[in-house]
Amino acid sequence: MSMFMDLPTGRVLVTGALGQIGTELVEALRQKHGHEAVIATDIREAEGCQILNVMDKKGIKKLMFEEQITEVYHLAALLSATGEKNPKLCWDINVTGLENVIAAAKENNARVFSPSSIAVFGPDCPKNAPQITPLNPTTVYGKTKVVGEELAVTSGIDMRGIRYPGLISYKAPAGGGTTDYAVEIFHSALEDGHYECFVREDTKLPMMYMDDAIRATIELMNIPFEDLSDSRGGYNISGCSFTAGELVRSIQRHLPEFTCTFKPDIRQKYADSWPEEIVDVVAKEEWGWKPRFNLDKIVDEMISNLKK
Ligand SMILES: NC(=O)c1ccc[n+]([C@@H]2O[C@H](COP(=O)([O-])OP(=O)(O)OC[C@H]3O[C@@H](n4cnc5c(N)ncnc54)[C@H](O)[C@@H]3O)[C@@H](O)[C@H]2O)c1
User: For 204, which of 170, 244, 276, 285 could close a Cys bridge (C-beta 3.0–4.6 Å)?
Assistant: First the structure.
């Protein structure tokens, strides 16, 4: 018999729902569970989204109890570039905020999805990052994600996560991470014909199209708890890896006049501390992960959707 509740039948809470991932995950969850069953929340105001600050422990518990929430997608966080500018706030939101969600989930017998990141890896990790390897990130952001992965397996609830690579999407702006250049570049290419990139041309990082990331999230949450190992705190999943220069050349297939210059800033340092590629055999074996988008396909989708 299952140690935890079986797969979801109830109502769903999304924190940080107005961000780059939340904007698309809420849509997908509403398709799956029905519009009314998904409560979107954020610290910012918007139509169809309730205000909920993840630092408000009582507020989370009250909302989860009143709405009979059985599944939480906890997306509220500060990302790497923003987080390193304000490490104390990053720790508070990413760790204390998560602890608050876990406490409320425990009381309400709810399952939790909480994203991890490729930022858990540090310079001592092989450039082709395995699932299991020492996690010694140099950024505070990365450290908060390591704590999140540990809490997933020690907190006594059904909690799962994915080490998302840099996510590329067109529906909402990127939220202050080191891989934001791979989103900004499309807007600048179409609007100005030029982009000044904040990492070097040869910087290679793991990336993924948002459709793949959303599908991965929903697929992982569909798997019975018993089928998952302790890697469930943060599964490696690979989309595709490319350099900033390769991204430019793929965009030039559509916009031959597009130019890009490279002016690395502090974010180069974070990028250099992360792996170039991700080994995702564990996610493939445990829950059948398979990406659908390679670099050129991502670029084709981004350009055609942004042109609309
Ligand atoms: N986007 C990526 O490339 C990427 C990569 C790896 C991991 N992740 C992780 O995925 C999750 C979501 O990322 P995202 O890209 O959607 O981020 P984002 O910055 O776009 O969105 C985060 C949202 O959280 C909200 N928020 C901030 N503080 C809050 C608070 N105290 N209470 C409630 N809401 C608050 C913000 O208003 C924002 O809408 C984060 O945990 C992030 O670390 C994202």
Answer: 276
Domain for residue 244, yes or no?
A: yes
What is the Cα–Cα distance from 9 to 274, expressed in whole angstroms?
Answer: 38
Residues 6+ apart with CB under 8 A from 129: 118, 121, 206, 236, 275, 277, 278, 279
- Does 67 share its domain with 16? yes
Q: Ligand 1 test: best mutation among 42, 112, 210, most atoms within 8 Å of CB? A: 42
Same domain, 85 and 231: yes
Under DSSP, the state recorded for 132 is S
How does pLDDT run across 267-284, given as a tens digit for each residue?
999 999 999 999 999 999
The CATH number assigned to the domain holding 255 equals 3.90.25.10
Centroid of ligand 1 to alpha carbon of 257 (angstroms): 34
Q: Do 15 and 159 lie in a common domain?
A: yes
61-75 tens-digit pLDDT: 999 999 999 999 999
